Amino acid sequence: MEITDVRVERLGLDLDEPAGLSRDRAIESRGAAIVLVETDTGITGIGEGVGPEPSIVETIVEEKYRSRLVGEDPLDVERLWQELLTEDLYWDREGQGVSAASGVDIALWDVAGKYHGEPVHRLLGGDTTDDGRLQAYASDLFFDDPEVMAERAAGYVERGFPAVKTHLGRGLDADEERVAALRETIGDAELLVDVNCGYDYPEALRVGRMLADYDVFWYEEPLSPYDTDGLAELRRELDTPVATGENTYTKWSFRDLFEERAVDYAMPDVMRCGGITELRKVCALGEAFDVTVSPHSFSSGVGLAATMQVMASSPACEWLEFDVTGYDLYESLLVSDLDVDDAGRVAVPTDPGIGATLPDDVLAEYGV
Ligand SMILES: [Mg+2]
């Protein structure tokens, strides 16, 4: 089998209302760079690379990586990963070069699954879940008035999700007002708080101490991803577990986080950290350092499918991040319909490959 072409389709849409994050930041649109690896057998693999601008992922894949890949055997996934990630004198150790390679890597695993007629988790060692399902948490609540956030959270819990994640990071008082409202509304359900690197150390410490009063399950990205020492210090000071990793690339950076004892829940993103090949290695590191891996996943259905394939195969993984916002590019990109039970447990795709596709009608409506 030979790769005949590698290309990217960009998808995008504007949100009905801005989604508020920490420090007055907000998302006004969402998009995806869908990587397609075509072969001479008629099998096409699908993947996704996440960067702030899908057009940059597209440029890197098509102008830098494509020529390295065409003519190669797509089943040589590990060798091709080495070519993409380490053959350019390490100029792109982190950032969008790795994101673009992640999209290619996911597509190569999808080709392999389709070639062997198996879901990718079966190629990664098989299913480690009891019943082919992953426990999900509802993601995300964006910053808004406390009563608006509480009402939305109640709706997620009513749908069966035992845990809800919220975006805060606008200062101690504003955060506490919302945490109190959410805790009162969702009762015993778990509450995860994400501040998207919004604080410096003193403020992160004050807010973290407040979160413990409300029995918060994890405190996500309290500090800049550059501040590994600060994360380690915060983790020692606080009772609430620290989660981080969506802005961390490759196994080498996760090794540093783990060696510094800087994280309780590691959150590698399969579409950024180096693809399926790298995520499973980060999971192995998680096992060795006794750190739970809860992959970050807030993107299209392609990324969701790839994330589930790795999570199903790794004993290090807990808590699937599941988008409950009604995103149009989620279920529409899955081969089979989403199957979420009344306890918020999501069935792992069993279609050959990762279980994702790019239908013509989705491309026609959302193609950029
Ligand atoms: Mg986050």
TrEMBL record:
Keyword Transcription: no
Record-annotated Mandelate racemase/muconate lactonizing enzyme C-terminal domain positions: 146-241
MF GO annotations: hydro-lyase activity; metal ion binding
Names of the cofactor(s): Mg(2+)
Tree of life domain: Archaea
Keyword list, A-Z: Magnesium, Metal-binding
InterPro entries reported for this sequence: Enolase-like_C_sf, Enolase-like_N, Enolase_C-like, Mandelate_racemase_C, Mandelate_racemase_N_dom, RHMD-like
One Pfam family this sequence matches: MR_MLE_C
Name used for this protein in its record: Mandelate racemase/muconate lactonizing enzyme family protein
Naturally occurring in which organism (per UniProt): Halospeciosus flavus
